[in-house]
Amino acid sequence: MAVKQEELNFSRNEQSETTMLPGSFAKAMRTNVIWQFIRFVVINLKMLVVVSKSH
Fold first, then answer.
1. φ and ψ of 4, to 5 deg
2. Which of 14, 15, 34, 45 is the most buried if burial means most Cβ atoms within 10 Å?
3. Residue 3 three-state SS
């Protein structure tokens, strides 16, 4: 049975008919400490902007 291109990131299991699985790029970005630190800084800067507008 051939898998369609748009179905590559989906898997079947007992709990759910179609559960989306992350691709190799998404897995790499989630486990990369440097990228997570950059995301942390960006999110904190966005929060500072929002808080500074309200005060």
1. -70, 155
2. 45
3. coil
Whole-model pTM? 0.57
- Summarised one tens digit per residue, pLDDT across range 6-41 is 556 666 666 666 677 788 899 999 999 999 999 999
Both tokens of 27, joined, read 């897995």
Going through the chain in order, the beta strands assigned E by DSSP cover: 10-11, 19-20
Contact 19, 10 (CB under 8 A): yes
Structure tokens at 15: 């709990």
Q: Is the dihedral of CA 13, 18, 19, 23 positive or negative?
A: positive
Token duo for residue 51: 């808080």
- The span from the CA of 8 to the CA of 2, in Å, is 10
